[in-house]
Amino acid sequence: LSIILYANKLYKFNILTLITLSLPMTIFQLGSTSPDSLIFSLSILLGAFLARIVYSDIEFKRIDFFKILVILFVLVTTKFSLYPLLLIPFFISKMRKIKYGFLLSFFFVILSLCWIFISLKLISSGEGVHFQDSNTLGKIFHYLTNLNRLIYLYKETIFDSASFKGILTSFIGVLGWLDTFFDKYVYCIFFVFISIPCLYFLCYSFIEKPLVIIFSCFLAISIFLLTYFILLVTWNPIDTNIITGVQGRYFIPILLIFSFIIGGNNFNNSERYKKLESFIPILVLLFSVAEMVNLLINRYYLALV
Asked: Is the model's pTM score more than 0.70?
Protein backbone atom coordinates (compact mmCIF):
# COMPACT_ATOMS: atom_id res chain seq x y z
CA LEU A 1 0.00 0.00 0.00
CA SER A 2 2.88 2.38 0.74
CA ILE A 3 4.38 1.70 -2.69
CA ILE A 4 1.01 2.25 -4.40
CA LEU A 5 0.45 5.55 -2.56
CA TYR A 6 3.96 6.69 -3.52
CA ALA A 7 3.27 5.76 -7.15
CA ASN A 8 0.04 7.78 -7.15
CA LYS A 9 1.99 10.75 -5.77
CA LEU A 10 4.49 10.42 -8.63
CA TYR A 11 1.81 10.23 -11.29
CA LYS A 12 -1.96 10.29 -10.92
CA PHE A 13 -3.64 6.97 -11.74
CA ASN A 14 -5.93 6.89 -14.76
CA ILE A 15 -9.24 5.03 -15.12
CA LEU A 16 -7.68 1.86 -16.57
CA THR A 17 -5.15 1.60 -13.72
CA LEU A 18 -7.86 2.07 -11.09
CA ILE A 19 -10.15 -0.49 -12.75
CA THR A 20 -7.33 -3.04 -12.88
CA LEU A 21 -6.61 -2.39 -9.20
CA SER A 22 -10.30 -3.02 -8.46
CA LEU A 23 -10.41 -6.48 -10.04
CA PRO A 24 -11.15 -9.28 -7.53
CA MET A 25 -7.91 -11.10 -8.39
CA THR A 26 -5.84 -7.93 -7.94
CA ILE A 27 -7.45 -7.21 -4.57
CA PHE A 28 -6.97 -10.82 -3.48
CA GLN A 29 -3.30 -10.95 -4.50
CA LEU A 30 -2.45 -7.53 -3.04
CA GLY A 31 -3.77 -8.78 0.29
CA SER A 32 -1.92 -12.09 0.15
CA THR A 33 1.51 -13.12 1.44
CA SER A 34 2.63 -14.26 -2.02
CA PRO A 35 5.24 -12.37 -4.09
CA ASP A 36 2.39 -11.10 -6.29
CA SER A 37 1.57 -8.37 -3.77
CA LEU A 38 5.08 -6.94 -4.21
CA ILE A 39 5.12 -7.54 -7.97
CA PHE A 40 1.78 -5.79 -8.51
CA SER A 41 2.73 -2.75 -6.41
CA LEU A 42 6.18 -2.43 -8.03
CA SER A 43 4.55 -2.73 -11.47
CA ILE A 44 2.36 0.26 -10.59
CA LEU A 45 5.41 2.19 -9.38
CA LEU A 46 7.28 1.37 -12.59
CA GLY A 47 4.29 2.51 -14.64
CA ALA A 48 4.16 5.81 -12.74
CA PHE A 49 7.85 6.45 -13.43
CA LEU A 50 7.41 5.61 -17.12
CA ALA A 51 4.40 7.93 -17.44
CA ARG A 52 6.44 10.78 -15.95
CA ILE A 53 9.12 10.15 -18.56
CA VAL A 54 6.78 9.88 -21.54
CA TYR A 55 4.08 12.45 -20.76
CA SER A 56 5.65 14.91 -18.34
CA ASP A 57 8.05 17.80 -18.84
CA ILE A 58 9.42 17.29 -15.32
CA GLU A 59 13.21 17.00 -15.24
CA PHE A 60 14.24 13.35 -15.16
CA LYS A 61 17.01 12.86 -12.63
CA ARG A 62 19.67 10.16 -12.78
CA ILE A 63 18.56 8.84 -9.37
CA ASP A 64 15.12 8.16 -10.91
CA PHE A 65 16.79 6.14 -13.64
CA PHE A 66 18.61 4.08 -11.00
CA LYS A 67 15.31 3.54 -9.13
CA ILE A 68 13.78 2.16 -12.31
CA LEU A 69 16.70 -0.23 -12.74
CA VAL A 70 16.33 -1.51 -9.17
CA ILE A 71 12.56 -1.97 -9.62
CA LEU A 72 13.16 -3.86 -12.85
CA PHE A 73 15.80 -6.07 -11.21
CA VAL A 74 13.35 -7.08 -8.47
CA LEU A 75 10.55 -7.70 -10.97
CA VAL A 76 12.48 -9.81 -13.48
CA THR A 77 14.30 -11.90 -10.86
CA THR A 78 11.00 -12.62 -9.11
CA LYS A 79 9.03 -13.26 -12.30
CA PHE A 80 11.36 -14.48 -15.07
CA SER A 81 8.66 -13.90 -17.69
CA LEU A 82 9.00 -10.13 -17.17
CA TYR A 83 12.59 -10.17 -18.43
CA PRO A 84 11.77 -8.26 -21.69
CA LEU A 85 11.06 -5.24 -19.46
CA LEU A 86 14.84 -4.80 -19.22
CA LEU A 87 14.69 -3.25 -22.69
CA ILE A 88 12.93 -0.25 -21.13
CA PRO A 89 16.10 1.38 -19.66
CA PHE A 90 17.72 1.39 -23.13
CA PHE A 91 14.62 3.09 -24.54
CA ILE A 92 14.68 5.66 -21.70
CA SER A 93 18.42 6.26 -22.14
CA LYS A 94 17.95 7.16 -25.79
CA MET A 95 14.77 9.16 -25.20
CA ARG A 96 16.17 11.28 -22.33
CA LYS A 97 19.84 11.13 -23.43
CA ILE A 98 21.07 9.77 -20.09
CA LYS A 99 24.86 9.71 -19.76
CA TYR A 100 26.16 6.15 -19.33
CA GLY A 101 22.54 4.98 -19.46
CA PHE A 102 23.24 2.20 -21.97
CA LEU A 103 26.22 0.96 -19.97
CA LEU A 104 24.30 0.87 -16.69
CA SER A 105 21.33 -0.80 -18.40
CA PHE A 106 23.57 -3.47 -19.89
CA PHE A 107 25.08 -4.15 -16.44
CA PHE A 108 21.61 -4.79 -14.95
CA VAL A 109 20.68 -7.03 -17.89
CA ILE A 110 23.74 -9.22 -17.24
CA LEU A 111 23.20 -9.15 -13.46
CA SER A 112 19.58 -10.22 -13.83
CA LEU A 113 20.49 -12.93 -16.34
CA CYS A 114 23.10 -14.36 -13.97
CA TRP A 115 20.59 -14.33 -11.11
CA ILE A 116 18.02 -16.18 -13.22
CA PHE A 117 20.62 -18.69 -14.41
CA ILE A 118 21.60 -19.49 -10.81
CA SER A 119 17.92 -19.90 -9.91
CA LEU A 120 17.39 -22.31 -12.79
CA LYS A 121 20.44 -24.27 -11.70
CA LEU A 122 18.90 -24.59 -8.23
CA ILE A 123 15.66 -25.79 -9.80
CA SER A 124 17.62 -28.29 -11.87
CA SER A 125 19.20 -29.64 -8.71
CA GLY A 126 15.77 -30.86 -7.61
CA GLU A 127 15.06 -28.18 -4.98
CA GLY A 128 11.93 -26.93 -6.75
CA VAL A 129 9.16 -29.08 -5.27
CA HIS A 130 6.48 -27.49 -7.46
CA PHE A 131 7.98 -28.55 -10.77
CA GLN A 132 7.17 -31.64 -12.76
CA ASP A 133 10.65 -32.06 -14.21
CA SER A 134 13.94 -31.01 -12.62
CA ASN A 135 15.88 -30.73 -15.89
CA THR A 136 14.82 -27.16 -16.62
CA LEU A 137 17.97 -26.05 -18.48
CA GLY A 138 17.89 -29.24 -20.54
CA LYS A 139 14.32 -28.55 -21.63
CA ILE A 140 15.18 -24.96 -22.56
CA PHE A 141 17.91 -26.25 -24.86
CA HIS A 142 15.55 -28.92 -26.25
CA TYR A 143 12.85 -26.43 -27.29
CA LEU A 144 15.29 -23.86 -28.63
CA THR A 145 16.75 -26.51 -30.91
CA ASN A 146 13.29 -27.82 -31.89
CA LEU A 147 11.45 -24.63 -32.79
CA ASN A 148 8.78 -26.45 -34.83
CA ARG A 149 7.74 -28.34 -31.72
CA LEU A 150 7.68 -25.10 -29.71
CA ILE A 151 5.53 -23.32 -32.32
CA TYR A 152 3.15 -26.28 -32.36
CA LEU A 153 2.71 -26.11 -28.56
CA TYR A 154 2.11 -22.36 -28.70
CA LYS A 155 -0.54 -22.81 -31.39
CA GLU A 156 -2.30 -25.66 -29.61
CA THR A 157 -2.34 -23.80 -26.30
CA ILE A 158 -3.09 -20.18 -27.19
CA PHE A 159 -5.88 -21.06 -29.62
CA ASP A 160 -7.41 -23.65 -27.30
CA SER A 161 -10.79 -22.31 -26.16
CA ALA A 162 -10.67 -23.98 -22.74
CA SER A 163 -7.17 -22.63 -22.05
CA PHE A 164 -8.12 -19.13 -23.19
CA LYS A 165 -11.27 -19.17 -21.05
CA GLY A 166 -9.24 -20.28 -18.04
CA ILE A 167 -6.82 -17.39 -18.45
CA LEU A 168 -9.62 -14.81 -18.74
CA THR A 169 -11.46 -16.08 -15.67
CA SER A 170 -8.32 -16.28 -13.54
CA PHE A 171 -7.26 -12.81 -14.73
CA ILE A 172 -10.43 -11.27 -13.37
CA GLY A 173 -10.48 -13.44 -10.29
CA VAL A 174 -11.16 -16.84 -8.80
CA LEU A 175 -10.10 -15.74 -5.32
CA GLY A 176 -7.04 -17.97 -5.43
CA TRP A 177 -9.07 -21.17 -5.72
CA LEU A 178 -9.31 -22.85 -9.10
CA ASP A 179 -12.71 -24.33 -8.26
CA THR A 180 -14.34 -21.03 -7.24
CA PHE A 181 -15.89 -19.09 -10.11
CA PHE A 182 -18.16 -16.11 -10.55
CA ASP A 183 -21.29 -16.22 -12.68
CA LYS A 184 -20.71 -15.63 -16.39
CA TYR A 185 -22.31 -12.19 -16.37
CA VAL A 186 -19.75 -11.01 -13.78
CA TYR A 187 -16.84 -11.82 -16.10
CA CYS A 188 -18.62 -10.09 -18.99
CA ILE A 189 -19.13 -6.89 -16.97
CA PHE A 190 -15.49 -6.78 -15.84
CA PHE A 191 -14.28 -7.53 -19.38
CA VAL A 192 -16.32 -4.60 -20.76
CA PHE A 193 -14.99 -2.24 -18.07
CA ILE A 194 -11.40 -3.22 -18.96
CA SER A 195 -11.56 -3.55 -22.75
CA ILE A 196 -13.39 -0.31 -23.62
CA PRO A 197 -10.99 2.16 -21.90
CA CYS A 198 -8.02 0.01 -22.95
CA LEU A 199 -8.93 0.18 -26.65
CA TYR A 200 -9.89 3.85 -26.43
CA PHE A 201 -6.66 4.90 -24.73
CA LEU A 202 -4.60 2.69 -27.02
CA CYS A 203 -5.97 4.32 -30.19
CA TYR A 204 -5.70 7.84 -28.78
CA SER A 205 -2.14 7.35 -27.48
CA PHE A 206 -1.01 5.71 -30.73
CA ILE A 207 -1.89 8.88 -32.61
CA GLU A 208 0.07 11.02 -30.15
CA LYS A 209 3.10 8.76 -29.46
CA PRO A 210 3.16 5.86 -31.97
CA LEU A 211 6.74 4.71 -31.24
CA VAL A 212 6.05 4.44 -27.50
CA ILE A 213 2.87 2.42 -28.09
CA ILE A 214 4.55 0.12 -30.64
CA PHE A 215 7.41 -0.50 -28.20
CA SER A 216 4.94 -1.17 -25.36
CA CYS A 217 2.93 -3.63 -27.47
CA PHE A 218 6.14 -5.41 -28.44
CA LEU A 219 7.09 -5.81 -24.77
CA ALA A 220 3.60 -6.98 -23.82
CA ILE A 221 3.56 -9.64 -26.55
CA SER A 222 7.09 -10.77 -25.64
CA ILE A 223 6.13 -11.15 -21.97
CA PHE A 224 2.96 -13.02 -22.96
CA LEU A 225 4.91 -15.56 -25.04
CA LEU A 226 7.76 -15.86 -22.53
CA THR A 227 5.26 -16.60 -19.74
CA TYR A 228 4.09 -19.66 -21.66
CA PHE A 229 7.69 -20.70 -22.31
CA ILE A 230 8.65 -20.42 -18.62
CA LEU A 231 5.68 -22.58 -17.61
CA LEU A 232 6.53 -25.03 -20.39
CA VAL A 233 10.09 -25.66 -19.19
CA THR A 234 9.38 -25.59 -15.44
CA TRP A 235 5.94 -27.14 -15.07
CA ASN A 236 5.23 -29.37 -18.08
CA PRO A 237 6.80 -32.74 -18.94
CA ILE A 238 8.79 -32.95 -22.16
CA ASP A 239 6.09 -35.02 -23.94
CA THR A 240 3.22 -32.59 -23.24
CA ASN A 241 0.81 -31.67 -26.03
CA ILE A 242 -0.39 -28.43 -24.45
CA ILE A 243 1.18 -25.90 -22.09
CA THR A 244 -0.51 -26.07 -18.69
CA GLY A 245 -0.11 -23.99 -15.53
CA VAL A 246 -0.58 -20.53 -17.10
CA GLN A 247 -2.88 -18.35 -14.99
CA GLY A 248 -4.39 -14.98 -15.79
CA ARG A 249 -2.84 -13.30 -12.75
CA TYR A 250 0.57 -13.63 -14.42
CA PHE A 251 -0.51 -10.94 -16.90
CA ILE A 252 -1.91 -8.41 -14.42
CA PRO A 253 1.51 -6.70 -13.99
CA ILE A 254 1.63 -6.07 -17.75
CA LEU A 255 -1.68 -4.22 -17.71
CA LEU A 256 -0.78 -2.33 -14.53
CA ILE A 257 2.48 -1.10 -16.10
CA PHE A 258 1.16 -0.22 -19.53
CA SER A 259 -2.10 1.27 -18.27
CA PHE A 260 0.01 4.33 -17.42
CA ILE A 261 1.60 4.38 -20.88
CA ILE A 262 -1.57 4.01 -22.94
CA GLY A 263 -3.65 6.12 -20.53
CA GLY A 264 -1.15 8.92 -19.99
CA ASN A 265 -2.65 12.27 -19.11
CA ASN A 266 -4.43 12.91 -22.39
CA PHE A 267 -7.82 13.57 -20.82
CA ASN A 268 -6.97 15.33 -17.56
CA ASN A 269 -8.24 18.67 -18.88
CA SER A 270 -11.63 17.25 -19.79
CA GLU A 271 -14.44 17.74 -17.26
CA ARG A 272 -16.24 14.68 -18.60
CA TYR A 273 -13.12 12.57 -18.08
CA LYS A 274 -12.75 13.82 -14.49
CA LYS A 275 -16.32 12.79 -13.72
CA LEU A 276 -15.81 9.35 -15.26
CA GLU A 277 -12.49 9.02 -13.45
CA SER A 278 -14.25 9.57 -10.13
CA PHE A 279 -17.35 7.46 -10.79
CA ILE A 280 -16.39 4.39 -12.83
CA PRO A 281 -13.53 3.00 -10.67
CA ILE A 282 -15.66 3.35 -7.51
CA LEU A 283 -18.52 1.57 -9.28
CA VAL A 284 -16.20 -1.26 -10.35
CA LEU A 285 -14.72 -1.53 -6.85
CA LEU A 286 -18.15 -1.72 -5.19
CA PHE A 287 -19.32 -4.32 -7.71
CA SER A 288 -16.11 -6.31 -7.23
CA VAL A 289 -16.36 -6.34 -3.42
CA ALA A 290 -20.08 -7.21 -3.51
CA GLU A 291 -19.49 -10.17 -5.82
CA MET A 292 -16.51 -11.38 -3.78
CA VAL A 293 -18.53 -11.28 -0.53
CA ASN A 294 -21.46 -13.04 -2.21
CA LEU A 295 -19.18 -15.77 -3.58
CA LEU A 296 -17.42 -16.30 -0.25
CA ILE A 297 -20.72 -16.56 1.65
CA ASN A 298 -22.04 -19.13 -0.83
CA ARG A 299 -18.84 -21.17 -0.78
CA TYR A 300 -17.93 -21.18 2.90
CA TYR A 301 -21.23 -20.63 4.70
CA LEU A 302 -24.33 -21.53 2.69
CA ALA A 303 -22.61 -24.61 1.23
CA LEU A 304 -22.22 -25.97 4.77
CA VAL A 305 -25.75 -25.23 5.94
From this structure: yes
pLDDT averaged per 10 residues, the chain (length 305): 93 92 92 90 95 80 90 94 94 86 93 87 55 69 92 93 88 79 91 91 86 92 94 88 91 94 68 75 93 86 67
Per residue, what are the HEC states of the chain? CHHHHHHHHHCCCCHHHHHHHCCHHHHHHHCCCCCHHHHHHHHHHHHHHHHHHHHCCCCCCHHHHHHHHHHHHHHHHHCHHHHHHHHHHHHHHHHHCCCCHHHHHHHHHHHHHHHHHHHHHHHHHHHCCCCCCCCHHHHHHHHHCCHHHHHHHHHHHHCCHHHHHHHHHHHHCCCCCCCCCCCHHHHHHHHHHHHHHHHHHHHHHHHHCHHHHHHHHHHHHHHHHHHHHHHHHHHCCCCCCCCCCCCHHHHHHHHHHHHHHHHCCCCCCCHHHHHHHHHHHHHHHHHHHHHHHHHHHHHHHHCCC
Determine how many CB atoms are found less than 10 A away from the CB of residue 279: 11
The contacts found for 95-103 with CB under 8 angstroms, 24 or more apart, are: 95/53, 96/53, 96/60, 96/65, 98/60, 98/62, 98/65, 99/62, 101/65
